[in-house]
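Quick log. Single chain, no ligands specified.
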Amino acid sequence: MKRFSPIGLLLSLSFFLLTSLAHGEGYITLASTTSTQNSGLFAHILPQFTKVSGIEVRVVAVGTGQALRLARNGDADVLLVHHRPSEERFVADQYGVARQDVMYNDFLIVGPAQDSAGIQGSRDAVAALKKVAKSSAAFVSRGDDSGTHKKELGLWQSAAVEPGADAGAWYRETGSGMGATLNTASAMNAYALVDRGTWLSFKNKGSLQVMVEGDSRLFNPYGVILVNPQKHPHIKETEGKRFIQWLVSPPGQQAIAAFQINGEALFHPNKR
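-> predicted structure:
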């Protein structure tokens, strides 16, 4: 029988522990949105980052509100979301270290081809929503505290409409992500607010068409933030910073720009 010396066993155990720790540190957790995940962006760009860095990025894709809560609790190393007021508050409350613009696209109001509210071709999102409410045409909301939901509520407020009071009538809340909400809108022949990235990648459009686009109020910027390691000492600061630096660097920005469907970019890099 082969015997191992105590020193040999100790060396083997040390090597095993060091290897395990190295593998354990070889990833970061990114709290982000269903819009970025459902669009296919992460599947396109993250392998490129991992190839040059050796760092895996594990994405937790939820609504912006929930992503912010995860990050506040220290359950993510990096945050990438799309509701600037919430992002700036996150940093001001010292849960995040700075904020950097990464990319942008825009929101669209989509609806059924028959367009009972008569809004197709409008470039005024607020006026269009007033018409939807006045006609009591079916509208499907995410209702999940996501960045898209926050944007939608702001537009309703500008339109002086309180759709929540009519929930269950012409206004429906799914409490789900963008893909599931679009599926519901398609099945109901209803209107909905959607980010362009998800819309371009969405397959089950049915009779849904773009109704409203081009309003400056539909601008949709995305920001990236390192979770503050002073709040949560376990945060992988070095790896998180490296990911953020890559995202805003020319290679990361080029990777975002190269992500297209049928020749159309789903997101535009912030730095050109």
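Residues 58 and 127 are 41 Å apart (CA to CA).
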